[in-house]
Design brief:
Helix 1 packs antiparallel against helix 9, helix 4 packs parallel to helix 6 and helix 14 packs across helix 15. By secondary structure, the protein is an all-alpha fold. The protein is globular and about 50 Å long. It is about 80% helix and about 0% strand. InterPro entries: MFS, MFS_Cyanate_Porter, MFS_trans_sf. It holds the Pfam family MFS_1.
């Protein structure tokens, strides 16, 4: 089949892809900082807050099931455009004050994120075949920066606007709409040729695809444990809520350079098993140092933890691209790895919290974190070998 024509300006294409990538996380990271204000303003219960924070992860996974249909009907380029527009619509919906718009907008935005998430590796594989590592690292870095921007700016924006939490959430629809507008010309040009749909059934019978999926899901589980529980763990160690938040923000900020470096360097090698061991070892050692180490190592451990977990995420996406033989396989493997992976990732923070509740301490929770890390390493050793799923 004749491949679609190359975009006339690859540098501009890369820039717009990064703009889209930046908007794939604020919808997820802006709710947490405003959760206290949301609960005060709406009477949302603790159980409702738990559902609100879990809902996006579930929608991310469910959205992956739509990917094959989207590719078959409109292609990956228009699929990314559609996903970005859905994100903007969901974010705007959250601006209507109330629990129904909040939950509905969150679900809609997460569905758009899931769709674009899956299609981005396929576009990198197709449009930047000689620089997949660098481009994967770059857009993963932008994902991390978008998450950090959303988390860090949510409260200041709420205070600046002065009309409650709803406008502070809805304002993020503006950069998402801008990203969709910037991507639209590339979507029209890149969609001129038909796009082959991935064969998910074949991937489900491929052991390598399952190893990539297991690594993606388990490393995502580690990340969601940190997102959900690191601030509380630090508060139990004597830090104030403000200081605990600053340490967590420091960890988040360090994910960006970790993602860029690991993806770029790991893709230069045919075998990524050494990188799997390295990033997981750094992640586990830094987490244990932050959870149980002396105060003197707190800041360097937080930075190292961010580098490690950012590297894990980037490596998961890089393995999707490298283990796929072509763009269609990359889209299918991305759908499988992220769809199943996010379902697995939900279990990590749940088990971590239940272990803490059962014991009142963090020892059993840390042991669970270590066990997930080891399992991710075993999956990654299989996924990191120089092999590919079939074209």
């Amino acid at each position: 089949m004749t491949p679609p024509p190359a975009p006339p300006n690859r540098l501009l294409l890369g820039f717009v892809l990064m703009l889209v990538a930046f908007n794939l996380r604020p919808a997820l990271s802006t709710v947490g900082p405003l959760l206290h204000a949301i609960r005060e303003g709406t009477g949302l219960s603790a159980a409702g807050a738990a559902v609100l924070t879990t809902l996006p992860v579930l929608c991310l996974g469910l959205a992956c099931a739509l990917t094959v249909t989207v590719i078959r009907r409109i292609g990956p380029d228009l699929g990314v455009l559609a996903g970005t527009l859905v994100i903007a619509a969901g974010l705007a919906l959250r601006g209507f004050d109330g629990l129904v718009p909040l939950f509905a907008g969150t679900a809609v935005a997460a569905t758009g994120i899931g769709l674009a998430n899956v299609l981005m590796p396929a576009l990198v594989k197709r449009d930047f075949p000689a620089r997949v590592g660098f481009m994967t690292g770059l857009y993963t870095m932008m994902l991390c920066l978008g998450a950090a921007a959303g988390a860090g700016a949510a409260v200041p924006i709420e205070q600046a606007i002065g009309h409650g939490w709803a406008p502070a959430l809805a304002v993020w629809a503006l950069p998402a709409a801008l990203a969709a507008l910037a991507w639209a010309p590339f979507a029209r040009k890149a969609s001129a040729g038909a796009s082959p749909a991935p064969n998910i059934t074949r991937l489900l019978r491929d052991p390598l695809a399952w190893r990539v999926t297991a690594f993606m899901g388990l490393q995502s589980s580690l990340a969601y444990v940190l997102f959900g529980w690191l601030p509380l763990l630090l508060q139990d160690r004597g830090l104030s809520p403000l200081d605990a938040g600053l340490i967590a923000s420091l960890t988040t900020l360090h994910q960006a350079p970790g993602a860029l470096a690991v993806a770029t360097l790991a893709a230069r090698r045919r075998d990524q098993r050494g990188w799997v061991v390295a990033v997981l070892a750094v992640t586990l050692a830094a987490f244990l140092a932050l959870a149980f180490g002396p105060d003197a190592v707190r800041l360097p451990a937080a930075g190292a933890l961010g580098l490690g977990i950012g590297g894990c995420f980037a490596l998961g996406l890089t393995l999707i691209v490298l283990r796929a033989a072509d763009a269609a396989s990359a889209a299918g493997l991305s759908a499988m790895a992220q769809g199943v992976g996010y379902a697995v990732a939900c279990l990590g923070p749940l088990g971590f919290g239940l272990a803490h509740e059962a014991t009142g301490g963090w020892g059993l929770s840390a042991a669970l974190f270590a066990a997930i890390t080891v399992c991710a390493g075993l999956a990654g050793l299989g996924a990191g070998r120089d092999r590919q799923v079939g074209a």
